[in-house]
Amino acid sequence: MRIGELARLTGVSTRLLRYYEEQGLLRPDRTAAGYREYGEEDTVRVWQIRSLLSAGLSTRVIAELLPCATGPVPVLEACPELLAILRGELADLDSRIEDLSRSRRALSHYLATARDSGPDHGRQHGPGHRHDDGHDYGEEQAA
Fold first, then answer.
1. C-alpha span between 128 and 143 (Å, rounded)
2. For 8-36, how does the pLDDT look when each residue is reduced to its tens digit (9 = 90+)?
């Protein structure tokens, strides 16, 4: 099948399918005239890619996981480095969640202590002042 048909079957644009190819996620055959030729297995591969992307994985990581994937959902088989990759991705996600939580606490603090009067509204302490939660809000602004 050609790229347009694969796009219709999967609901993924031809532009995005070309991007997946550039990233090494799809490897279509080429006709003598240079047209991309996809097989039925590529339909499943696109669904696998979409599913793994929705889990927040990068195309770089997905390229490493695809050899371990079976079925459209996909199911990941225990390939040698699979668990280490997924654990690393989970640790990175946990770190980002902690960073976002810290930022949320800081914004909540600023909102709770904001004053709606005068040019210095909401400013109770100078930059770099540590608050009860131990967070240095001034440093974060400078970073």
1. 11
2. 999 999 999 999 999 999 999 999 999 99
What is the per-residue pLDDT for 23?
95
Residue 112's Cα: distance from chain center in Å?
Answer: 32
Distance CA 103, CA 97 (A): 10
For the chain, the residue count is 143
Share of the chain above pLDDT 70, in %: 81
pTM of the model: 0.66
How many angstroms from the chain centroid is the CA of residue 39? 27
Backbone angles phi, psi at 60, to 5 degrees: -60, -45
Give the tokens for residue 138. 């001034």
Distances in Å between the Cα of 131 and the Cα atoms of 52, 111, 113 are 40, 14, 12
User: What stretches of 1-143 show up as alpha helix (H) in DSSP?
Assistant: 3-10, 14-22, 40-54, 59-65, 82-113, 137-142
- Each residue of 62-99: b (16+ CB within 10 Å) or e? bbebbebbeeeebebeeeeebeebbeebeeeeeeeeee
For 36-50, write each residue's pLDDT tens digit. Answer: 999 999 999 999 999
